[in-house]
Amino acid sequence: MKTTATKQDKVLAALQNGEELTAKQIRSRYNVGNVRATVSALRMKGFPIYLNKRASVFEGVKTTYAKYRIGTPSRAVIAAGYKALASAAA
Fold this sequence. Notes:
This protein is α+β, with helices and mostly antiparallel strands. It has one domain (about 5-90): Arc Repressor Mutant, subunit A, CATH 1.10.10. The protein is built from four helices and two strands, in the order αααββα. The protein has helices at about 5-15, 25-30, 35-45, 75-90, and strands at about 50-60, 60-70. Strands 1-2 form a two-stranded antiparallel sheet. The protein is flat.
């Protein structure tokens, strides 16, 4: 049986391969209608996806943009996850 990768699977694979993607890139490459919802769903599955803001200057004009990437969660984030699990089990 042939399985088809979902849009979430494709976005996740790109991020895990080290790509940093803007919302516009995710929308156009993977035909994702709601990028924030897709990223949020992946985060809820436990993937540490971060949104980093960047700035660039071209011919004296400063522009800002944001890119999604996979990262390493901080100790505080891991601790908060364990605390949430412990309170849910109690």
